[in-house]
Design a protein that fits this description.
Blueprint: H1 2-9, H2 21-24, H3 27-49, H4 54-76, E1 86-91, E2 97-102, H5 104-111, E3 119-123, E4 131-135, E5 149-151, H6 154-166, E6 171-175, E7 181-182, E8 187-188, H7 195-199, H8 207-213, E9 220-230, E10 233-240, E11 252-256, H9 257-263, E12 264-270, H10 277-285, E13 288-291
Parallel strand pairs: 3-5, 4-13, 8-11
Antiparallel strand pairs: 1-2, 3-12, 4-5, 6-9, 6-12, 7-8, 9-10, 10-11
Helix pairs in contact: 3-4
Keywords: Hydrolase, Protease, Thiol protease
Pfam family, one: Peptidase_C1_2
GO cellular component, one term: cytoplasm
Length: 301
């Protein structure tokens, strides 16, 4: 979804489009917008059932979109349009002042030196066979590229992440963060709770079974910034979270490799870091297998 956004709209420096109170703390805004969208969906379904004309339904939808745009504009501000001229003023590492006139699209394409279109997701979904997957009705821009997930083993997700970290590049990943997680001390570890000791029984669901039973899904995105390797194998990972700089760990988590196997589902990477080039072939061939819109693989995107 980020790829669609930056290729269609570009990017700007934070000085050009700064944060607002609602972007820094968005829960109330999300609640308001989500309930307005539900309200609008019920109205549109009612119009469809009453056999109103497509033109009249489209006119109502246009009015609804304007309401949502007004809400977002008042709370987040109005960003520059893709081809609007912006001025970026900054000082380089030597203290020299620079001023560049450009557009959001050109800032992304010419100044950042980063091509988001080269990145795609590896997922570990034990329910399904290896290959390229997408999720029905999951998208953010009309005509944009679909969600692209290459399904493979957890080992291949780790290899790609390790290769990126060794190249000093952080790694976006998706996981079920609420499982065996201790926010206060910053720990993600399946051995943190011993249910067997306390209750005489443990939770015996496998990763595949948790997905099938609705017990697990991708619920949160974080960033891998480090890995501890012993005898060529990862033991634990350093995770940067987005919940603020709290506690002695300053908002970072330590994630055990066992937790990675059980609760990490997605790693974003590019072909440079992938050792098994079959996975790159899946991505480039665009032979999609479509998961239903309610699939847990679509919970985060």
């Amino acid at each position: 979804m980020v790829v669609n956004l930056v290729t269609h709209f570009g990017l700007v420096p934070k000085t050009v489009y700064p944060d607002s109170a609602s972007s820094l703390s968005s829960s109330r805004l999300n609640y308001f917008v989500n309930d307005k969208l539900r309200e609008f969906a019920l109205i549109l379904r009612g119009l469809k059932k009453s056999e109103k004309s497509e033109a009249s339904i489209a006119a109502v939808k246009e009015k609804m979109l304007k309401e949502i745009h007004t809400i977002l504009s008042l709370t987040l501000g109005v960003p520059p349009k893709p081809d609007d001229e912006i001025t970026w003023e900054y000082k380089d590492k030597f203290g020299n002042f620079h001023s560049i006139k450009t557009t959001p699209k050109n800032f992304y394409k010419k100044h950042l030196g980063f091509d988001a279109e080269n990145y795609f997701s590896l997922i570990n979904d034990p329910r399904n066979t290896p290959g390229l997957y997408t999720v029905d009705k999951l998208g953010n821009i009309e005509g944009g590229k679909p969600i692209e997930y290459v399904n493979t083993s957890s080992t291949n997700l780790k290899k790609a992440a390790i290769n990126a970290i060794k190249n000093n590049e952080p790694v976006f990943f998706g996981s079920d963060v609420g499982k065996f997680e201790d926010t206060k001390i910053g720990l993600l570890d399946v051995d943190s709770w011993d249910y067997k000791l306390g209750f005489g029984t443990a939770i015996n669901l496998t990763k595949k079974q948790r997905l099938a039973a609705g017990s697990s899904a991708m619920t949160h995105a974080m960033v891998l910034t480090g890995v501890h390797i012993v005898d060529g194998k990862p033991v634990r990972w350093k995770v940067e979270n987005s919940w603020g700089e709290y506690g002695e760990h300053k908002g970072y988590f330590v994630m055990s490799d066992k937790w990675f196997d059980e609760f990490v589902f997605q790693v974003v990477t590019n072909e440079t870091y992938i050792e098994d080039k079959t996975l790159v072939g899946y991505w480039k061939n665009k032979d999609y297998k479509v998961l239903p819109y309610y699939d847990p693989m679509g919970a985060l995107a």
